[in-house]
Amino acid sequence: MTNRTTAGQLARRPEAGSFMGLLAVYVFFAAMGGANFIGAPGLSSFLNMTSEVGIIALAIGLLMIAGQLDLSVGSTVPASSLTVSLLAVDFGVPDVLAILGGLGVGLAIGFVNGVLVSRTRIPSLIITIGTMFGTMGLTLGVTVLIHGSTGVFLVPEDATKAVFGQLVGNMFQVSILWWGLFVGATWWLLHASPLGNWIFALGGDKDSARNAGIPTVWLTIGLYMFSGFTAAFVGVLQVMTFNAAQVAAGQTFIFNSIMCVVIGGVLLTGGAGSVAGIVIGTLTFCIVNQGIFFSGLDPNYGSIIIGALLLIAVMTNDKFRAMALALAAGRKR
Amino acid sequence: MTAPILELKGVNKSFGPIDVLFDINLKIKAGEVLCLLGDNGAGKSTLIRLLSGVHQPSSGQILMDGAAVSFPSPRAASEQGIATVHQFGGTFPLMSIGRSFFVGVEPTKGWGPFKRYDRKTANEIAVKAVQDFGITRIDDGDRLVGGLSGGERQSLAIARAVHFGARVLILDEPTAALGVKQATHVLRIVNEAKRRGLAVVFITHQVMHAMAVGDHFAVLIRGAVAADFGKGEKTREEITDLMAGGASMANLEAEIEAQAQ
After folding, report:
1. Residue A327 in contact with partner chain B when CB distance is under 8 A
2. In A, which residues are within 8 Å of B109 by CB distance?
3. A300-311: pLDDT as tens digits
4. Per the count of CB atoms within 10 A, which of A122, A296, B68, B84 is most buried?
5. Does B89 have pLDDT greater than 50?
6. Contact across the interface for B102 and A210, Cβ inside 8 Å
7. Higher per-residue pLDDT: B238 or A149
8. CB under 8 A, 24+ apart: contacts of A119-122
9. How many domains are contained in chain B?
């Protein structure tokens, strides 16, 4: 009954495939990109990207483990950053309150998503596409109405700039530290707290989860609110980093966050996944995405690598999951 | 026998204009297996859902230990000691045995906001509970449920229900998807649950399985109890006939014979 972890067991962990993929991708771009990629410029470029998409990917990962999708994050990011900048610039609200306003918008969008998903039988894919367009239109309309243009420039206060938007060593965004915090918190939530068990159960079999007494409706709403919150938080980080908010910013987060999660071995249909996997997937995705600029390859081909990576990742993850199940079934002594 | 744990008195259920169950009267006693037989669409599932709190009766009464009760939610029913195990065990293939066993009631260690899931305790209790039911092949709580056989999954689910103090065990077609050997396994566990004094409601349309463990039988046809009898009162052929609609099956046989001549 002792729980020794053997090398064999470790190799059969679902994240093993994604981790080897991460190493391969890093070695490849390190070889292609040389010192620039290995040094601070390369490191900061993919870590900066990782920190933003990574915060959202954590929440998307939890949702996917629970068997749901959320595409609305793509317009929650600009909705939040514009709320912050409109409040601060056009209404003269202190930064802290403006930021709380932006985060509140994210929580509200998440709440609406969660209620709609748990109260109707419409697939979450469709619902969140709907709320994504709704939010985008609303953001655009309100911004033009109040500010008269689709972009807002903002000069953050020193304190909020330091906390959310400063560049460390002129290259590394402070958002990387925030990402680390989110990773820790999400890891705790999914793997240490009892709530994590509920999330796995919800994605594994919704009816059984409900019959086991799990408040599935509230759990679903909570997960969507977490997703809305992370997107809004990234919106805050962006506006504080770039001193500007744009209506059109954020659409890339939709597919990028899903890809990070899937590359990280989270099962699209729910019920399986890990925070370690999501972190590995996000790093892999961002290394490819940014590494291409250091490699001397035509950046236009970057998308091909990402597409291939996604397919390979899903295939190897399935393979490793099958091995994990076989490990459970076998071992006849 | 003692008073029934669970009793249905004149229970009706309709969904809008559609009547699904008519005037159901059933008694479920401790240490007995009640087999609920019936064809597809006879209302077995609706009846189970009434007992497990998913639906509420439109009229009529559910009595527990002689007192009227209502189960507004599955949780309420399970708090009263009614556990439902579904066809595929109601378990989560990609979760570990320990985690799956304790879904919704996770053991924790630590205090306050730092309470965390106690994997070791969960695994030990889960493995012991399953082994007590005679499934000794399960010895590691970290193994994934998906790696277990269908029979083992059912057994895990039943052991789980018993561990959490179930008094009434509702088994929804537990043997339907299983091979012969696996089904025998599950029937043995049903017997063990009965021996421990649980009341078991066993839903099936396999008469053989029902007759192997049943003490009492009820046949549902189009939402009504068409027959209600004890062990040994009817033969297998009679029960099969009843389930298939009795007379209509006999007519069909006669027709086929007439054509053959």
Report:
1. yes
2. none
3. 887 888 888 888
4. B84
5. yes
6. no
7. A149
8. A119/A217
9. 1
Q: Determine, yes or no, domain membership for B126.
A: no
pLDDT digits over A45-62, tens only?
Answer: 999 999 999 999 999 999
Q: Which two tokens stand for residue B203?
A: 């839903």
Looking at beta carbons, which residues of chain B come within 8 Å of A273?
A: none
* CATH code: domain of residue A63: 1.10.3470
Q: Is residue B191 part of a domain?
A: no
Task: State how far residue B225 is from chain A, nearest Cα, in angstroms.
Answer: 27
Confidence (pLDDT) at A274: 92
Q: Does residue A3 lie within any of the structural domains?
A: no
In a domain, B100, yes or no: no
Cα–Cα distances in Å, from A322 out to A10, A98, A316, A328, A330? 14, 48, 10, 10, 12
Put simply, the answer to whether B103 touches A325 (Cβ < 8 Å) is no
Cα distance from A32 to chain B (closest Cα, Å)? 39
> pLDDT digits over A151-163, tens only?
899 999 999 999 9
Report the C-alpha gap between A297 and A303 in whole angstroms.
Answer: 12
Question: Quick check: B146 and A328 CB within 8 A?
Answer: yes
Task: Tell me the chain B residues in contact with residue A204 when contact means C-beta distances shorter than 8 Å.
Answer: 92-95
Tell me whether residue B109 is in a domain.
no
**Which residues lie across from B11 on neighbouring strands?**
B24
Positive/negative CA dihedral, B192, B198, B201, B207: positive
What's the domain count of chain A? 1
ipTM of the complex: 0.77
CATH of the domain at B19: 3.40.50.300
Classify strands B216-221 and B33-38 as parallel, antiparallel or unpaired.
Answer: parallel
Host domain of residue A147: 14-325
Is residue B67 within 8 angstroms of chain A, CB to CB? Answer: no
Containing structural domain, residue B205 = 6-91+168-177+197-260
CA distance A23 to A95: 41
Question: Helix H segments across chain A?
Answer: 7-11, 15-38, 40-65, 73-85, 95-119, 124-147, 158-160, 175-187, 194-204, 206-211, 216-242, 252-263, 275-295, 302-329
Show residues of chain B in contact with A324, CB under 8 Å. 144
A6 touches chain B (CB under 8 A): no
Question: Is B103 within 8 Å of A209 when comparing Cβ atoms?
Answer: yes
Nearest residue on chain A to B139, judged by CA atoms?
A1
